[in-house]
Amino acid sequence: MTDTSSRIVAGRYRLVRQLGQGGMGRVWLGRDETLRRDVAVKELLSPPGLTDEARDDLRERSMREARAIARIDQANVVRIFDVVHDGGEPWIVMEFVPSRSLDEIIATEGTLSPRRVARIGVAVLAALRAAHDVGISHRDVKPANILLGQDGRVVLTDFGVAAHADDPSMTQTGVVLGSPEYVAPERATEGIGGPAADLWSLGATLYAAVEGQAPFRRSTSMATLVALATEEPAPATNAGPLAGALDGLLRKDVRRRIDGAEAARRLAAAAGGRKGLDLGTFRWWLRSRLRKHRWRLVGGFAALVMLAAFVVPLMGGKDPGPTAGQAGSVPGRQLVHQSTGRCVDIPGGAPDTKSPVRLWDCTGGPGQRLTLPTDGTLRALGRCLETGSPALGSGLRLAECTGAEAQLFTLTPDSALMQKSTGRCVEPATKDAEPGTWLRMWDCTGAPTQRWRLD
User: Is 47 or 280 the better-scoring residue by pLDDT?
Assistant: First the structure.
């Protein structure tokens, strides 16, 4: 269906224009000719080639969505007005919310500030808790299903794969519904859903909003699911006061994952609803200030060194001469990504164990000074780069130097940075390789995105 401005559904709802399309249907802006108000009308899409049984199954899913939404009375859940049948197919008539999806905002505006994301999280969590209170799990929480209204309202929509405790499963055994980037580990590996799985998906969604991509995003759905099952999420480097909430929501062990009440407390604190700083907030604040004023600090330190050079002789002391690393810049060279001109960077210049490694604008700071000794390790800040796991797509992090195979690299003649044990090459995790993009190990292809140089 293309031109639908003259189409009237069930003799009452005039379709105006298409708003969007997902796996469960196509959504239109409609006009309720009886009450004279704008509505959102969801049209069921039946893929070609379905059997009658499969088509009936799809209709039942649509009706289940309507029943699921109708059971929830909460401001952050889109309201359902009616279910009508037209041409033998069900249409769901819902509240129209002038808005943009969180997914669209991330794509067009980039990452959002931690406090803004926390406020969005508070609203979405309220919607989820209202659904959970009546026994409903959403099962597809992701940026595309979160609407940010023009009036500031945040709405969780598309309960198309929702499940109720007394509603039989509509999926075959082993089939995972939802988007792989945002599906909880227990759903991906064991098919177990429930409120805890929704909370994981919320955490992955908020992570994507501050980092620009989901924590386990890979080039294919299968690679994403493998990473989800075998790796830990890369630490969120831009989370700031949101770090504590993300840490609690993205715990793979369901028994250790925080519940809705604790998530609400942490998100409210991150959104500015509580005075004082927790540990995660303080660490973010300190690192952000160090990054912002690092050159002032370096200049002040240099001034102190120059002052000492004059004061020591005057006090009768002996000048011991320059020590290693004192004269000139920090030892080491920048590892530059040739395609973008950006450098391998340790966020905040903090040599913490398992600190993430990312791509950032070249500044010459300590976190970008690397050495490649003859032993094959790649060192920065007194520690070694290593892969988190041998799996394809594994991220890079900073760790204590042990000489393990995961820490051995070589710069090949064609400028690829290759891990010796796996024969895989380092590349940015996304094609655009924007500042903050984390690095991963991938099959060596000789592509420009895998070429590096030491400056």
Answer: 47
